[in-house]
Specification:
The chain is mainly alpha-helical. 44% of the residues lie in helices and 9% in strands. The strands form 4 sheets. It has a 3-stranded antiparallel β-sheet. It has a 3-stranded antiparallel β-sheet with strand order 6-7-8, with no helix packed on it. Strands 9-10-11 form a 3-stranded antiparallel β-sheet, with no helix packed on it.
Length: 373
């Protein structure tokens, strides 16, 4: 990765208002002392509390478990992290603490601060248990980011310290050098093959990376961000130039390709790539531009949920309300439009994932307009 591209990445991310400019600047500052929670955020709720309550009624159990109704009622670290982020933005500390308690009690891993990625409620005779102790990096990033935001919001050193611990273990356990690139593994185990490394572009949550860089200053964060953007510029496929859900990066470096063993699609994972780019103020990146072109293609009779690169086909059914909210955000950011936020139609969403995408698109719209942590 050239120094010019790294500098351009630094400037682009530092200019985006999703975090204060020093958040990314500290990436090159070396390790520093543990940050204090800082002054409380003066802003009101970024997420309508009534909309958040509707989400909680449908998808959050009283004990704080977030239920993925699209996947047989499982719970996973990304859902817990996203819900924590939403609770903080809705100023709902009671629900935040309930979600945090269940997450820490149930998904904590021995030996590090990361989270086990999946809990099955029907396992162990119906009692429920973690059936895969591997982590999911996107869940860890969101979990840490939510804790850091809550630490500042409510001036809690406990939240901040837990977020810092997760950030340190992301650096310690999930970062690899592949050729001349610094990459973020999707999980600590199972993604490093003999000839290639499997990566998930949607796990590069740039606003979260910036927050973690502020909490745990280290130049590795900048390399992750700039090399991640480089990956997304090269890893685009099909007629619209879209990111794939999963990609394989050769061990010696070079052009990534859709990962073997996964469908060759821009689908339910990769839809988060333009979401996070827009959230970080990078809505004109090629991957986001490609997504905007895909969603506005006049040849579609309705907005599709996905496209398959190998077959050059689109889904036979329409996009969910959550995907449509991400599309609206992406298209607006590509056009530099700021007039109206994406719709957050939790009632319209048929499942958890569609509902949470709607909420995240609204938070991304708000954060990309106003400075926050």
């Amino acid at each position: 990765m050239s120094q010019i591209l790294r500098r351009r990445t630094l400037l682009a991310l530092a200019a985006a208002p999703a975090l204060p400019a020093p958040a990314l600047a500290t990436m090159d500052a070396g390790r520093g002392p543990r940050p204090e929670p800082g002054p409380p955020s003066p802003r009101g709720p970024a997420l309508d509390p009534a909309v958040w309550r509707t989400f909680c009624t449908r998808f959050v159990r009283p004990d704080g478990r977030v239920v993925d109704t699209f996947n047989n009622g499982i719970s996973h670290s990304e859902g817990q992290g996203w819900a924590l982020l939403c609770a903080e933005q809705a100023l709902d500390r009671e629900t935040f603490d309930q979600i945090l308690s269940w997450t820490t009690r149930t998904l904590a891993r021995p030996g590090d601060a990361l989270l086990s990625w999946r809990f099955r409620p029907d396992a162990f005779g119906g009692v429920g248990q973690v059936d895969d102790p591997n982590n999911a990096t996107d869940g860890d990033l969101m979990f840490a980011w939510a804790l850091l935001r809550a630490g500042r919001r409510w001036r809690s050193e406990a939240y901040t310290e837990q977020g810092v611990a997760v950030a340190r273990d992301v650096l310690r356990l999930l970062v690899r050098q592949v050729g001349d690139e610094t990459v973020l593994l999707p999980g600590a185990a199972g993604f490093e093959q003999r000839e290639h490394v499997v990566l998930n572009p949607s796990y590069y949550a740039f606003p979260a990376l910036r927050a973690l860089a502020q909490a745990v200053p280290d130049p590795i964060w900048l390399r992750l961000a700039s090399d991640g953007l480089s990956l997304m510029r090269r890893a685009r496929f099909g007629r619209w130039g879209l990111p794939a859900d999963w990609v394989a990066l050769p061990r010696g470096g070079g052009r990534p390709s859709p990962a073997p063993g996964w469908p060759t699609r821009f689908s339910y994972d990769a839809v988060r790539v333009p979401l996070y780019l827009a959230w970080a103020g990078l809505g004109r990146e090629p991957a986001a531009v490609g997504a905007a072109r895909f969603w506005t293609d006049p040849r579609h009779t309705r907005m599709p949920a996905w496209t398959d690169f190998a077959a050059d086909t689109v889904s036979p059914y329409g996009a969910s309300p959550g995907i449509r909210a991400v599309a609206q955000l992406t298209i607006a950011r590509h056009a530099d439009a700021t007039s109206s936020p994406p719709e957050s139609s939790v009632d319209e969403a048929q499942d958890y994932y569609s509902a949470i995408l709607s909420l995240l698109a609204r938070l991304a719209w708000r954060d990309s307009l106003t400075a926050s942590i």
